[in-house]
Amino acid sequence: MVNGIWNRLGIVNEELKAVMLAVPRHLFVDSALAAQAYTDKSLPIGAEQTISQPSMVAMMTNALAPNKGDKILEIGTGSGYQTAILAGYTPRLYTVERVAALSKRAQGLLEQLGYRNVIYKIGDGSLGWESWAPYDRIIVTAGAPAVTAKLKQQLADGGRMIIPCGDRETQQLLCVDRSGDQFRETELGDCRFVPLLGKEGWEK
Ligand code: SAM
């Protein structure tokens, strides 16, 4: 894991540190980029997509605050790095990726690493994944124009969603807490994600 990010982020979360330490990030990037895998950078993973910076993954997972046993939905499997970290928390992780080649590569690697608790879907995650809803936690790892209605519907009462919202280039990271029909949004800071492309996302 990247040294120094925890002090900078001000996160004291020993469980998250241990979970992130156990995931070998260099395996989730092309071997030509392996030397950069333990720097705090986002890196290309093909199909014009990126693996998120470790500090962003740490911040989002910390804010998501998953409990053991929560049912989690991840939108944007990408390299599978964030997926591996979430899989350390829950027996029931559902992950959706629109680019088939990325989903298949992530699935192959995660199975090779022994993760058996992840269910994969290739498709438009801006619509969520209705058949397994509701979810205790939802995490979106691509920038959305707004908190999508479908994802709100699929969040369990008492559940939490972390989602970057804004324009195509820059977003605000939002924490959305559901209580009955009320959705309370808290801004966590500026961020830059690749766009969430899809029916309730951006046009390609
Ligand atoms: N969390 C990933 C990781 O650790 O490698 C990084 C995700 S990358 C920043 C965002 C991902 O969201 C890309 O792989 C992209 O293809 C995917 N994406 C964009 N729009 C999507 C959609 N509507 N449904 C599912 N995945 C989507």
Short description:
With 204 residues, this protein is an alpha/beta fold. Helices cover 25% and strands 29% of the residues. It contains 6 helices and 9 strands, in the order ααββαβαβαββαβββ.
Task: Write a structural description.
By secondary structure, this protein is of the alpha/beta class. The protein has one domain (2-191): Vaccinia Virus protein VP39 (Rossmann fold, 3-Layer(aba) Sandwich). Helix content is 25%, strand content 29%. It has 6 helices and 9 strands; from the N terminus they run H-H-E-E-H-E-H-E-H-E-E-H-E-E-E. It has helices at residues 5-9, 14-21, 54-64, 81-87, 100-112, 149-154; strands at residues 43-46, 49-51, 71-75, 92-97, 118-122, 135-140, 155-166, 171-179, 182-191. Strands 5-4-3-6-7-8-9 form a 7-stranded mixed sheet. A two-stranded antiparallel ribbon has the order 1-2. Helix 6 (149-154) links the parallel strand 6 (135-140) and strand 7. The chain is globular, with a radius of gyration of 16 Å. The N and C termini lie far apart (34 Å). 42% of the residues are buried. The mean pLDDT is 95. It binds S-adenosylmethionine.
